[in-house]
Design a protein that fits this description.
By secondary structure, this protein is α/β, with parallel strands linked by helices. Helix content is 28%, strand content 30%. It has one domain: Purple Acid Phosphatase, chain A, domain 2. Strand 19 (290-294) and strand 20 (297-301) form a beta hairpin.
Length: 331
């Protein structure tokens, strides 16, 4: 047995912070960017589903008063200060909003194309604001943020990431990116088909082909992070209530309780079993946070509570092609 001290590595640690499924929540996104300084992260990774769910009209009702309906309640405000507070609440919940006259609202409510255009315009506007915020904050730390879309994110909205070049908020989808001198990452935000028919759904086989095509570009898969929005099938990271098709889709109940199942991707699971990357990062299923291993690969879904303004994430410590540690976070 040698009594010589173990040689210390000369390479620096990379602290990667990952969060996903923020769905336009202003508070969750600001916490995410500020995590660079809070957790001393050298790399940020923002997983898919950056776009919100809906637009809330804020109606002028005269005499400086407004009303808006959300959360199954009608809210009335009577001052500009109350209006600002309501707008901040909507932003935290991930809703877009637009102040308008009642006549404008009535005309809009009968025009599906106009509603869709308003939603996309507001989504692009918020994403542009996020890029500007990230650019200003991350300059202080030099931390780079890699970001991709998810199945809920329409391509014309994601185009903002490419049309607004940033040194710090960098689109990474369908690419191999360098995290540091020792580690790379591949990213895909598509999901398998869902009952909600979201903008970016493909078959499980097609998802597998996309993963395989990306892996072929990776110099050393054992030192690679897989950033895949869909979690692996039957992994506990994909456990959710079963839903049947409909308008709207409905939960399937048995004995008055939702029927649970693994909604993840078999192709993602196969890729992890076959390629054994250093770690894999997932989202999509908000209610199934956790950490598991598939073979040697550490697989993480931090979950999402974006509508409460809570940021769930995970820190990975990388060095010399090894995963030195990990920690789930919430705050």
């Amino acid at each position: 047995m040698s009594l010589l001290p173990r040689k210390k590595s000369s390479s620096l640690l990379t602290r990667l912070f990952f969060a996903t499924d923020l769905h336009a929540s202003e508070r969750a996104f600001r916490k995410f960017i500020n995590a660079a300084k809070f957790y001393n992260a050298t790399v940020l990774v923002l997983g898919g589903d950056v776009v919100g769910k809906l637009v809330v009209p804020i109606l002028r009702v005269g005499n400086g008063k407004y009303r808006a309906t959300f959360g199954d309640q009608t809210h009335h405000v009577e001052t500009q200060a109350e209006l600002k507070k309501m707008q901040e609440l909507l932003g935290m919940m991930g809703f877009y909003f637009c102040v308008m006259e009642e006549e404008e609202f009535r005309a809009l409510s009968h025009n599906g194309n106009a509603i869709q255009k308003l939603f996309h315009d507001l989504a692009r506007e918020r994403l542009t604001q996020w890029i500007e915020f990230a650019e200003a904050r991350l300059k202080e730390t030099g931390t780079k943020c890699f970001v991709m879309g998810g199945n809920d994110d329409a391509l014309d909205i994601l185009q903002v990431l490419y049309d607004s070049p940033s040194d710090f908020m960098i689109p990474c989808e369908d690419r191999v990116v360098t995290l540091d001198s020792q580690h790379t990452m591949i990213s895909l935000g598509y999901s398998m088909p869902t009952p909600w028919h979201t903008p970016r759904e493909i078959s499980d086989d097609a998802l597998g082909r996309k993963i395989d095509a990306l892996v072929k570009q990776v110099p050393d898969v054992s030192r690679c992070i897989f950033n895949l929005h869909d979690p692996p099938k039957d992994s506990s990271l994909d456990l959710c209530a079963m839903v049947e098709e409909g308008d709207p889709p409905r939960y399937i109940l048995k004995g008055g309780q939702p029927v649970m199942h693994g909604a993840g991707s078999q192709s993602v699971r196969r890729a992890l079993e076959t390629y054994q990357p250093l770690a894999s990062l997932h989202g999509h299923i908000h209610e199934s946070p956790g950490v598991i291993r598939i073979g040697k690969t550490l697989c993480v879904n931090p979950g999402s509570e974006y509508s409460e303004g809570i940021l769930r994430g995970v820190i990975l410590i990388l060095q010399d092609g090894k995963l030195r540690g990990h920690q789930l976070t919430a705050g």
